[in-house]
Structure formats: structure tokens, C-alpha cells
Amino acid sequence: MLTIIHGADFHLDSPFSGLTPQRAVQRRREQRQTLDALAELAAERRADLVLLSGDLLDGQITYRETAQALAQALGRIPCPVFLAPGNHDYYHSQSLYAGLDWPEHVHLFTTGAIQAVTLEQLNCTVYGRAFCQAREDASPLAGFTAPRDGRIHVMALHAQVDGRGEYAPITREEIAASGLDYLALGHVHQCSGLIREGEVTWAYSGCPEGRGFDETGEKGVLVVQVEPGCCRGELVSLGGRQYHDLKVDAGACGNLEAAVWVALPGLPERDVYRITFTGACPEGGIDLAGLTARLSPQVYGLTLSDRTQVERALWERKDEDTLAGRFLRQMALRGAEDPDNETLQLAVRYGLAALEHGEDVAP
Fold this sequence. Notes:
Elements: E1 2-7, H1 21-44, E2 49-52, H2 64-76, E3 81-83, H3 96-99, E4 106-108, E5 115-119, E6 124-128, E7 152-158, E8 160-161, E9 169-170, H4 172-177, E10 182-186, E11 195-197, E12 200-204, E13 221-227, E14 230-236, E15 243-249, H5 256-263, E16 272-278, H6 288-295, E17 301-306, H7 312-315, H8 323-334, H9 342-355
Parallel strand pairs: 1-2, 2-3, 3-4, 6-7, 7-10, 8-9, 10-12, 15-16, 16-17
Antiparallel strand pairs: 1-13, 5-6, 11-12, 13-14
């Protein structure tokens, strides 16, 4: 049985454009520290292999500190490491990968054809290949079948299962026909868990740490126990920050600030949150600026947005002989078929705030 750590999609040196410049610099520094956590996990779990399935880098432009951190961290991993470049960090003669001096136990796949490395001491053969350009529309698994020679056969691959695009599309039928014991995939940022196609187990490890609100929840790397015909795995966190996308019903809350604190999962001082207020608009609207000022010092990253709807009682003002009443009558006519339409609701709130010189309560 082999213990394998399967990771992918670190996207080191991401821009983190949704954060302040100071926070973005800090996040890139923390990404490099994730590499140290990977090395520590490999030692702690006594891993036999580490498979890195591409997109370790976010692009072809990489900071010097990141290159140094990558080489040093992989050098500290106490077992063979196999790296299969993906579409973001594809291999070419001028790439970072080509210019680094890799430790002897780190194997970098450098061609578009599948290569094999046999590790006699582990009774194992490791396969992999590299993206050699940003887009590739051919299946790297087409026609591949591992031999039945009594060894454990595993592969690191950056590819798109069921894909029809330009990121090495592979089919489930090709996976089942591959004869592998474990296929370690990169490209999809959500962990898939272990999946069986015929006698083959495959998985996406997902990204080890979220970088935006499209990558919410727990992230990490997979620790997989592999033996012929059987694989068991678990997602293990590397201790990074998480992103949370939350909704709070403003109409059901007497105290919005208290409701936010009740809704917050995770560790507010560590994680990044986007909170959207929904439901009926409270009397007087939502003071987003005030809430942000009070909450932000206690939360690492916070974005508040208001998607509440105007309370029904407010529409009753359309009968008033005032400018606001005339405005509401016109808006009611425009929204007769769908009075709860979000765009209409926001337009009403903008309009009333402008007419009555109130604070703009919309996002």
C-alpha cells in the first residue's frame, strides 16, 4: 500500500484583485507558506509519493521569492515528488520550471507525451505529462493502458473530465480503460472526492486554498491510500484562509450587526466574507457604510451588499399627492407584472433616496 499526497491548482502569485494591495501582498506571501505546510504534511503522514497535478503557478510571470520558496519547499519533502505542469504554468524552454535547479527527488514532466518513471523500491510506476502550451484540445489518455505487471500504477495529470474544450479533455471511458490504480487530476478547483470508473479510482484534489468567492469552503490536498483495486482518501487542510459567501435575512432581524455575527462561520479574524442582505428592507434602509466600519476591524476581509426588497407598505405611498407618490405610481406601472423584480426594487430605493435627499442605501 502507498500513501500518496495529491495536490494541484495552488496558483501561486495570484493577483488577489478583490483585496487591498496590502492584503494582496500578504496573501501571496501566505500562498508560499502553504508550500511549507505541504512539506510538513508529507513528513507527518510519512508519504511515499507527492503528486502535483499542475497550475502550481498562476501564470508565466512569477516573483523571485515564489520561485525560491517552491524549490526549497519541494526540496524539504522527504519522498519522491512528481510535477505535471498545467495550462497556467505550462512547460517551455523559457518557463520558470526550465530555469530552476530541482532536487534529485523531484521529477518534472516536460513533454506532452505521457512519460513513465518506475520506482522499484515502492513497486510502483508513476506516469505524467506536461501542458506545453496554454490550450490543448487532444486527450492525453487516448490509447493509454498501464501494463498488468504486478506494480501499482498512478498518474499525475492536468485535464478536464467530460470536457469538450481546450484543456486536455478526457472521457470517463478513457479513465476506465487506463488500467491505473489512481489518477491524480488537476484543473477543477473543487475537490471531487474519490470516484470509480471501472477498476480505476480518480479524483480532483481541488485548490489548497480559496482565492475568491467562487472558491468557498474547506480546501486542501488529498491524502490517499492506494493499493491494487482499492483506494481510500481524505481531504486535509493546509491551514489557509477560507472564503464564505453568506446571506442574511434583514427583514427577520432586529439587530443587523448581531445577526451578522451569528451568521459568521469559520474564524472571522482569518477568513474572508461576502454578506448579502436579503428579505424586506428594514425601516430606514441599511447603513452599509456604518456596518462595514464597525465590523471590518474584527474581520480579515469583508464585503457587504444590499439586496433587500422595498417593504410592501412603502408602495402604499403611491397614493400620496407628492413627488414621491407620483414617482411610485410610475414605477408601479412599470413593474405591474413583477413587482418583486430586483432591478425594480433597487430603482425605487435609488429614486426615493434622491427625491427625499436621503442616504443612498443601495449597493
